[in-house]
Amino acid sequence: MTLQAAIGLNPELLAPAEYFEPRWYASYTNPRHEKQVARQMEANGIPCFLPLYRSVRRWKDRRKQLELPLFPGYVLVQIALKDRLQVLRLPGVAQLVSFNGKPAPLPGSEVEALRRGLAGGVCVEPHPFLRVGRRVLVRSGPMAGVEGILQRKKDRFRVVISIELIRRSVAMEVDEADLEPIC
């Protein structure tokens, strides 16, 4: 019998609330195992999100359009910390992204904004992680409310949205009229 049980304490009262609340986490996978890990998570009823983008690859004899992970090496998973072993036991999952030994949750608003954007047909591609540049707010469209860094590519505008925790960024095309600067 544990000391807690002996004195009549409920173990749930000793753990922080975040231990029981489902939140988004980044699971780090073995190289090129993202799709396999996402399939296993779905088969086990674990809510996950693997953002993909389309890319045309050329070989000497052919061209092929592929769906590649937007964040190579990561699958986003929505779990309560108490259920993290269900994820960590899956083949291909190395660990949850952590700081000081504790899994670090992703901002749910960023994950949901990315999901809405991809579902709305926004054209995305991976982008190098950036810290400098003009910060903007997307006012309308499927990505409304998202903050990012404004860039220009040829005659089009792009907003780079960064997920700080995993140090990855995504560039997406937007209309200049949908943007407003953040002071």
Question: Could you provide a short overview of the structure?
Answer:
With 183 residues, the protein is of the alpha+beta class. The chain has two domains: 1-106, 2-Layer Sandwich (Alpha-Beta Plaits), CATH 3.30.70; 107-183, SH3 type barrels. Helices cover 19% and strands 38% of the residues.
E-strand count: 14
Describe the global form.
globular
Compute the CA-based radius of gyration. 20 Å
* Quaternary organisation: single chain
CATH superfamily caption of the largest domain: NusG, N-terminal domain
Helix content: 10-25%
The SSE string, one letter per element, is HHEHEEEEHEEEHEEEEEE
Question: Largest sheet, order of strands side by side?
Answer: 9-13-12-11-10-14
Mean pLDDT: 87
Cα end-to-end separation? 58 Å
- CATH fold-level assignment of the largest domain: Alpha-Beta Plaits
Largest sheet: 6 strands, antiparallel
Number of helices: 5
CATH class term of the largest domain: Alpha Beta
Q: How many domains make up the 3D coordinates? A: 2
Strand content: 35-45%
